[in-house]
Amino acid sequence: MSSKPKVAFFDFACCEGCQLQIANLEEDVVGLTKLVDVVEFREVLTGHAPEYDIAIIEGSITRKKDEERIKDIRNRAKLLVAYGQCAVSGGINRLKNNWESMDDVRKEVYGDKSTMPHLDTYPTKAINEVVKVDLFIPGCPINREEFLRTVKELLMGKIPKLPNYPVCVECKFKENACLFDFGVICLGPLARAGCGAICPSNGVPCDSCRGTVNNPNKDAMHEILKKYNYTVDEIKRKINIFGVNPEVKQ
Amino acid sequence: MSKNNIKIDVEHVTRIEGHGNIVVDVKEGKIEKVQWQVPEAPRFFEAMVKGRYFSEIATITSRICGICSIGHTFASLKATEDAMGIKISETTRHLRELLLHGETFQSHILHVCYLVVPDLLKVNSVLPLIETHTDIILLVTKLHRLANELCDCIGGRTTHPIRARVGRFSMLPNKKELEAIKKRLVDSVDDLKKIAGVVQSLAGNLPDFKRETEYLALSYDKEYAFYDGDCLTNDIKKTIPVREYKNVVNEFIVPQSTAKYGKFNRDAFMVGALARWNNNYKQITPLAKEVGKMLGLDGVNYNPFMNNIAQVAETVFAVERAIYHIDWLLNNDLKLEETEVKPKAGRGVGAVEVPRGVLFHEYEYDDNGYCVKANCVIPTNLNHNNIQLDFEKMVPEFMHLGEKELQFHLEMLVRAYDPCVSCSTHYLDVEFKK
To answer: Cβ of B35: how many Cβ atoms within 10 Å?
Structure first.
């Protein structure tokens, strides 16, 4: 029997783009398989295991039966990691929570068949709204380098830490011109860094897909909004895409 | 247990994108139940985008699928541009086609090499092959990396591309980057031939099974259709405009699936690489045709397992066309466009061929550019009904092999369709009832 840590991957409601980032590690995946024993990963291999040292979870919970499944996984896992924004905050799946009634959401997609029982859904929950999560790897999609670093740190017995400074810091390091100066509203001042400011570096505003820093500097954000003539509502609307509520006060 | 009794109950078929179940119940040689089920959690995208601004829509609908996020982005942008009457430049068009070929390259390599080859070698995943077939696996990762880096170079990121926007690209690749990628693509053709050789040595393990069906794909007079075209099947003579897609896909809801099903002139149709090949193979490049032929795909083919082979031929095509588009970009002055979009009310449809088949997005916008209605028709959904009918023909033909082999073949069939159930919602679990 192998003494390598047993690792399992699971997905719930999501696009599976984060597990693709693992495949996209290419040759590094080959290296990773020498350090851990991947015992369950439905998209990649056929097989099941009774318990796991590390369970890595993608996606959010939107049905009662998925809630039972994640609880069962939690019971059999020593450590549980939520990776990708769907798992961390509910991600874009949370957009449907803006609707007043889930019946209307179902009707919008399935029309007059929407009451069929198998099409049931409830407001999207992040993984930690159902079970205890030991570690978060945010992002839509995750930054695969961050994923690799996190796994390595875990294997070395360290507790990985997320950057707690805004995307603006990384954006300045990249020497990008500020998008606000071009008349574009950007969530960089509130958003959690760790992506290398990838969107502003490609000429597109930050959507805060990694959530916000723990204590966003609201005063600075208000100053920026005032300077460039934007309202708090515009920021709130934008930050809603990836399911983050920063509680920005007027 | 008598050999005449078979019970298969596979919950969550593995090595596919998303969740699907297979249920087979045979009692004393009599088939009581054969069913393909899709229990994936539905995600309600059409509700998510309602009320969002037109420039945000592709950001959201790209998240329907991580594997074909580039295709979803383009179907979405095309629909929005159609609704608002926005025209794109020649440069943007070449960049989009290049990016789309990059995605096809990436997705087909991933599917054939990581998910299907293990079946042909009768191992449970690609992981044991790292030990037993190291050189080939390293070659595959090299190609997969190249495909992803091509997409990074053009789209800013391979999964959920950043630079592709309504009417424009937010940033352009520089010529040095394009030249470097081109050189690697040219060199990769030899690597692809090696991969095709490996597939050739295993192609004999693909099950011998045939069922003719209706094949639906985009058709374009100028080339083997991916980015542009109208709807065509082998059952109609004249193409149907993309804007009339609803008359072609005819989606309906069934109790065994959270994904919608579709049909047109027959009880079911097939979309994807084999459908594209069957309808358009005369337009594919000579090298891709040659690779297809080498692997037993010569002209129209009714074996759904050959979808994997059509994917190998299309990979070659994608690389050749990517080189063509890079050459165009290298020979022209590229300028960043500052397209100012004035939102207006309207309804638009966008269609592209993504790795798993034809994809449609439709949106309706109000005067201020906010989405009031959306509909996304996902290729994996369109295949569900065809998988069911394949199952119904396969079970009696393969049940003499016994439960284990029958289950293996049914799972392999599902994988051959390269289903992306997270897109379509998610699927594959097999249940053999005894």
So the answer is: 16
Written as one letter, the residue type at A11 is D
Burial string for A15-25 (b: 16+ CB within 10 Å, else e) reads: bbbbbbbbbbb
Check CB contact of A42 with chain B, cutoff 8 Å: yes
pLDDT at B434 exceeding the cut of 50:
no
Is the CB of residue A47 less than 8 Å away from at least one CB of chain B?
yes
Is residue A36 less than 8 Å (CB to CB) from chain B? no
Per-residue pLDDT tens digits for B246-271: 999 998 888 888 778 899 999 999 99
DSSP per position, B212-242: --EEEEEE-SSSS-SSS-EEEETT-SS-B-G
Pairwise CA distance, residues B126 & B119, whole Å: 9
As a whole number of angstroms, the longest Cα–Cα distance in chain B is 72
* Interstrand relation of B346-354 and B230-233 (parallel, antiparallel or unpaired): unpaired
Q: How many residues does chain B have?
A: 434
Chosen from A21, A41, A46, A113 to mutate, greatest number of chain B CBs within 10 A: A46
Query: Which among B110, B114, B160 has the least Cβ separation from residue A140?
Result: B160
The helix (run of H) or strand (run of E) holding residue A19 is: helix A17-23
- Phi and psi angles of residue A147, each rounded to the nearest 5 degrees, phi first: -60, -45
Could you give the ipTM of this predicted complex?
0.92
* Domains, chain A, ordered by start: 6-155 (3.40.50.700), 167-239 (no CATH)
How is B385-398 classified by DSSP, letter by letter?
Answer: HHHHHHHHHHHHHH
pLDDT in tens, A73-119: 999 999 999 999 999 999 999 999 988 899 998 888 888 888 887 78
CA A9-A142-B48 angle, 5° bins: 95
Strands (E), B65-200: 164-165, 168-169
What distance in Å separates the CA atoms of residue A62 and residue A125, rounded to the nearest whole number?
6
Chain B residues touching residue A16 (CB < 8 angstroms): 17-18, 65-67, 422
In order, the DSSP letters of B175-202 are HHHHHHHHHHHHHHHHHHHHHHHHHHHH
Q: What are phi and psi of B221, to 5 degrees?
A: -65, -25
- Going along chain B from its start, the domains and CATH numbers come out as 6-433 (1.10.645.10)
Residue linked to tokens 């945010």: A138
